[in-house]
Amino acid sequence: MAKRILVAEDSSVIQNITKKVLQFQNYEIVSVKNGQQVLDKLAKENFDAILLDISMPVMDGMECARKVRSLDDPSKAKIPIVAITGNAKNYTMDEFKAVGIDIYLQKPLNFDSLVNTVNQVTNN
């Protein structure tokens, strides 16, 4: 059974490339454009990890991570969260950890790092 990854990214280009790279690694990908859509999807479906862009409309990645960690369902509240950001310098790892982000990847994405990180957090 394929591991399911929820990709939250407002750039269609990055979303599509990420999807193709991870599908090639036999992951099942569901894509959304903002943090609110992440919460909507999580309410109905299960995922093995979340790839979360930090800068998104409606609800950004930091707020979204905070809300995921406070979900009532303990298994969903513990989902590994990988932040994707073009401006990691705006945040410290402590700030990422404080909202519940497990690890972050810098944009532009290195796809080997992406695959390795997703494999690591999903124990694939």
What is the makeup of the main sheet?
A: 5 strands, parallel
Overall number of structural domains:
1
List the strand order in the largest sheet: 2-1-3-4-5
- What is the string of SSEs from the N terminus onward? EHEHEHHEHEH
Mean pLDDT: 95
Topology (elements, then pairings):
Layout lengths: L3 E5 L3 H13 L3 E5 L2 H10 L4 E5 L7 H9 L4 H4 L3 E5 L7 H7 L3 E4 L4 H12 L2
Parallel strand pairs: 1-2, 1-3, 3-4, 4-5
Give a structural overview.
The chain is an alpha/beta fold. It has a single domain (4-122), classed as 3-Layer(aba) Sandwich (Rossmann fold), CATH 3.40.50.2300. The protein has six helices and five strands. The protein has helices at residues 12-24, 35-44, 61-69, 74-77, 93-99, 111-122, and strands at residues 4-8, 28-32, 49-53, 81-85, 103-106. It has a five-stranded parallel beta sheet, with helices on both faces. Helix 5 (93-99) links the parallel strand 4 (81-85) and strand 5. Helix 2 (35-44) runs parallel beside helix 3. The protein is globular and about 30 Å long. The chain starts with a strand and ends with a helix.
Quick structural gist:
This protein has six helices and five strands. The chain is an alpha/beta fold and 124 residues long. Helix 5 links the parallel strand 4 (81-85) and strand 5 (103-106).
Key terms for this structure?
single chain; about 120 residues; alpha/beta; Rossmann fold; 5-stranded parallel β-sheet; about 20% strand; globular
